[in-house]
């Protein structure tokens, strides 16, 4: 009897083992090509001396690049945040930002703007190939951009009912109802990028995105192992432009044959992997800073990252009244909030404009007298005038995304309480936060980090879906701004809008933050724009 | 016995059913919208609405549940919104790493704990006994993630013997497979070992006080023979129970270790899926884990009979 049991159990266990290992090895075969070479780079020594221009034979062909967050989609029209690290290396648009956020032609050869400022004509480059070998033509551009417009809120706000139309094989036309000066910036933006994909791919896309990832960029998509890595490889038929590389624009040449974007969500693990030599690039937190500074072959980079804004719910019982918004703006101490968020005076700067100073066209200091007031008496006065009697203010936040939203919010909470405002912190995971933020009854104040505003018309909190801004004058000024054509007109309209924004207070600008990253000296030519890495022109010495 | 096994397996059906209702209710009651998570801040409201429609999120609760149960009875656990593959396929893919890790961690635990426990029991009050108490205290109090960070610093960053994180399947070679799992398995195993060693010691001591030990001594059986042949055999039942329980825990828990070592296992998949509200995957994983628990307990019960012939299963 005893023996019988044993035999039976052994058999059961063996079957179970085979079943499990059978499954795991089957489906990992697909991925093994992508991971086979990991060991080599993991063991690579870190002592290689860097030379300015390594010869081709001395270059490594594979780079592993760590991503801090999950990649929910690789559809460039839908891609935000981490997704963009990958997509901007696969896809290109008609225009791309240079280092000063200026739109520069990429897939477009040139463009014409009609006298009345309403009709854009884009002339496409000839001979540009998609990763599937097909040549890019006007029909692809039209299909891509019309789909881009239909799925992204930002593009809809800019383009209204206008559609892109084919004029001939290499010419695309966009006729607008009214003149707009932000079209090229919209076409260049890295978030919800107006990428050009083959017509067939665009037409086969469902609501959850395109099913194939085919672009024109220097790297082509190879494999996406959900939650593990995205593998891209050099596209041999890439046709670069001749302009000097700058930001995301200009000449691109892939020196790396394979790039793996590894998803490593734990920051300690990412950093240890960098120290162990698996990665040659890593984001650096303040805790890890001393360790990086102790390494001789590593360079520390400071990148302009996100700007922090306090957004009001303009439909909430209190903050529908501008007096309350003024009271909050009066008490805020930007230094305190920024320091509390990034923990180091080196990692932020005060900035009264809703745009970055680097962004020459749209930077404006109008209305800056209302920025960083630190005036508790004025705030209390305003509260009294508004008739405040202890209503609770809900601050919506999340501890996810590295904790910076939460850190900023608790400093704001403390400042509000210092003038006698009763507050409640509503902490959620990010998925819940998204849901609640869209609900006008769920919150009063939301302090968020925003990525790279490139034109005022792209500021999310100025449009009704984000904080429910609903103001005729704001809409009119935004319209005038986008319709301005000469530099002088733009400046006047821009100043007027930003001045008014500091009066209407859809949101209160807090300041700009920097992020830090470390690169090993053997990794050269990596450029970033607002933290997003352009891996074309990047070389890795062996 | 076949009847016994069948009955035990059948008994899981109501458990799984109740569990599915609870899990379904909980995840639908917490706010959060997979469509919004997937498409992000920049998507137009119409696009999000279209995706909700496609994913079937606009149906009322009951029809959604009915649809899900209907499919589940046909062996179809639904499709993952994010991974764009059937849940059963995703489960199979992610089970491999989790199972490998659990087996290895259990081996570490047993290999460390059982000899330690035996030694401590046979030399009660000695230095090795006190050392075991110290080790247990260490294992129980030091969280696995702290231990794992120290081991990574030492073995991966300083000595560069083992990779920091990641996972390679068995098909890449046994050593490659093990290399990636050693540190997480040790971090997990030590914690389990602490508990197991204490149970082994206590159980051994209890068996040592039985009268058959005296008989054996009187018969002139060597001390070694008594400890391993008589006492251990009799002390094995509680040890088996704890091993079974800890194996269940290893399959179900420890998402932190998978996250730190970036192992694409089932627990990491579960955490990711909760964050992005991938409903079908959450349900699939929870049901699977519940089923695995029942199965492990069944195997433990069967092992009882194998180890102790006095136990008869009907």
TrEMBL record, chain A:
PROSITE patterns: PROKAR_LIPOPROTEIN, SBP_BACTERIAL_5
Residue ranges of the TM segments: none
Coiled coil stretches, renumbered: none
Family matches, as CDD domains: PBP2_NikA_DppA_OppA_like_16
Membrane topology: Lipid-anchor
Compartments where located: Cell membrane
Signal peptide as annotated in the record: 1-30
Major location (coarse): membrane
Domain spans labelled Solute-binding protein family: 102-458
Keyword set, alphabetical order: Signal
Protein name: ABC transporter substrate-binding protein
From TrEMBL, chain B:
Family stated for the protein in its record: Belongs to the binding-protein-dependent transport system permease family.
Keyword Transmembrane: yes
Keyword terms: Cell membrane, Membrane, Transmembrane, Transmembrane helix, Transport
Transmembrane segments: 9-30, 99-120, 132-157, 177-197, 235-261, 281-307
Protein localization: Cell membrane
InterPro entries, A to Z: BPD_transp_1_N (IPR045621), MetI-like (IPR000515), MetI-like_sf (IPR035906)
Protein name (database record): ABC transporter permease
Topology in membrane: Multi-pass membrane protein
Domain ABC transmembrane type-1: 95-304
């Amino acid at each position: 009897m005893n023996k019988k049991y044993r035999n039976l159990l052994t058999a059961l266990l063996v079957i179970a083992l085979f079943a499990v290992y059978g499954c795991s090895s089957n489906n990992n075969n697909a991925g093994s090509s992508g991971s086979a070479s990991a060991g080599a780079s993991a063991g690579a020594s870190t002592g290689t001396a860097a030379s300015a221009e390594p010869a081709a034979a001395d270059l490594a062909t594979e780079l592993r690049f760590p991503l801090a967050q999950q990649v929910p989609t690789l559809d460039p029209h839908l891609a935000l945040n981490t997704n963009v690290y990958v997509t901007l290396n696969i896809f290109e648009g008609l225009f791309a930002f240079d280092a000063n956020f200026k739109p520069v032609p990429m897939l477009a050869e040139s463009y014409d703007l009609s006298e009345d400022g309403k009709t854009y004509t884009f002339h496409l480059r000839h001979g540009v190939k998609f990763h599937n070998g097909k040549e890019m033509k006007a029909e692809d551009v039209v299909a891509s951009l019309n789909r881009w417009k239909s799925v992204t809120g930002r593009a809809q706000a800019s383009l209204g009912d206008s559609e892109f139309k084919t004029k001939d094989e290499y010419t695309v036309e966009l006729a607008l109802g009214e003149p707009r000066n932000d079209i090229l910036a919209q076409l260049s933006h890295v978030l919800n990028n107006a990428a050009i994909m083959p017509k067939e791919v665009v037409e086969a896309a469902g609501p959850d995105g395109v099913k194939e990832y085919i672009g024109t960029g220097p790297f082509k998509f190879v494999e996406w192992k959900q939650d593990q890595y995205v593998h891209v490889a050099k596209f041999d038929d890439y046709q670069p432009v001749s302009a000097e590389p700058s930001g995301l624009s200009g000449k691109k040449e892939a020196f790396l044959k394979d790039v793996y974007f590894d998803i490593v969500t734990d920051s300690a693990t990412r950093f240890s992997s960098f120290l162990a030599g698996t990665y040659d690039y890593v984001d650096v937190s303040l805790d890890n800073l001393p360790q990086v500074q102790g390494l001789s072959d590593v360079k520390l980079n400071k990148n302009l990252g996100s700007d922090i804004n306090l957004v009001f719910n303009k439909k909430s019982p209190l903050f529908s009244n501008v007096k309350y918004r003024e009271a909050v703006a009066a008490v805020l101490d930007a230094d305190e909030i920024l320091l509390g968020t990034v923990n180091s005076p080196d990692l932020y700067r005060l900035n009264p404009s809703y745009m970055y100073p680097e962004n020459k066209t749209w930077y404006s200091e109008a209305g800056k007298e209302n920025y960083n007031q630190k005036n508790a008496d004025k705030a209390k006065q305003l509260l009294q005038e508004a008739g405040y009697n202890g209503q609770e203010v809900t601050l919506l936040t999340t501890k996810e995304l590295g904790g910076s939203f939460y850190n900023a919010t608790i400093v704001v909470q403390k400042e509000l309480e210092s003038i006698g405002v009763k507050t409640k912190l509503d902490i959620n995971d990010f998925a819940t936060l998204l849901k609640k933020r869209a609900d006008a009854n769920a919150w009063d104040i939301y302090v968020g980090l925003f990525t790279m505003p490139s034109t005022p018309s792209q500021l999310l909190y100025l449009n009704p879906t984000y904080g429910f801004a609903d103001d005729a004058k704001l809409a009119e000024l935004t319209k005038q701004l986008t319709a301005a054509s000469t530099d002088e007109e733009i400046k006047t309209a821009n100043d007027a809008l930003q001045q008014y924004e500091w009066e209407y207070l859809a949101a209160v600008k807090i300041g700009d933050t920097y992020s830090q990253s470390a690169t090993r000296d053997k990794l050269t030519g990596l450029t970033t724009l607002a933290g997003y890495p352009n891996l074309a022109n990047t070389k890795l010495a062996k | 016995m076949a009847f016994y096994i069948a009955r035990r397996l059948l008994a899981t059906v109501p458990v799984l059913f109740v569990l599915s209702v609870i899990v379904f209710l909980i995840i639908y009651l917490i706010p959060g919208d997979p469509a919004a998570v997937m498409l992000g801040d920049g998507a137009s409201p119409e696009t999000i609405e279209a995706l909700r429609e496609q994913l079937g999120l606009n149906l009322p609760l009951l029809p959604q549940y009915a649809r899900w149960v209907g499919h589940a009875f046909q062996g179809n656990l639904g499709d993952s919104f994010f991974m764009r593959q059937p849940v059963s396929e995703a489960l199979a893919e992610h089970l491999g790493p989790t199972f490998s890790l659990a087996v290895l961690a259990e081996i570490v635990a047993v290999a460390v704990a059982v000899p330690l426990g035996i030694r401590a029991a046979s030399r009660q009050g000695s230095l090795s006994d006190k050392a075991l108490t110290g080790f247990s205290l260490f294992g129980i109090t030091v969280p696995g993630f702290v231990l794992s960070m120290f081991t990574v610093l030492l073995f991966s960053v300083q000595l560069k013997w083992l990779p920091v994180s990641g996972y390679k399947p068995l098909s890449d070679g046994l050593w490659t497979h093990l290399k990636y799992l050693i540190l997480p398995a040790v971090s997990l195993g030590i914690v389990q070992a602490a508990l197991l060693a204490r149970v082994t010691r206590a159980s051994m001591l209890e068996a040592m006080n039985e009268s058959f030990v005296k008989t054996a001594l009187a018969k002139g059986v060597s001390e070694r023979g008594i400890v391993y042949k008589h006492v251990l055999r009799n002390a094995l039942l509680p040890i088996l129970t704890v091993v079974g329980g800890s194996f269940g825990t290893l399959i179900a828990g420890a998402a932190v270790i998978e996250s730190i070592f970036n192992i694409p296992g089932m627990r990491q998949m579960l955490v990711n899926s909760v964050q992005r509200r991938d409903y079908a995957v959450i349900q699939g994983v929870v049901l699977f884990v519940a089923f695995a628990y029942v199965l492990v307990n069944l195997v433990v019960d069967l092992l009882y009979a194998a180890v102790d012939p006095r136990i008869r299963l009907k």
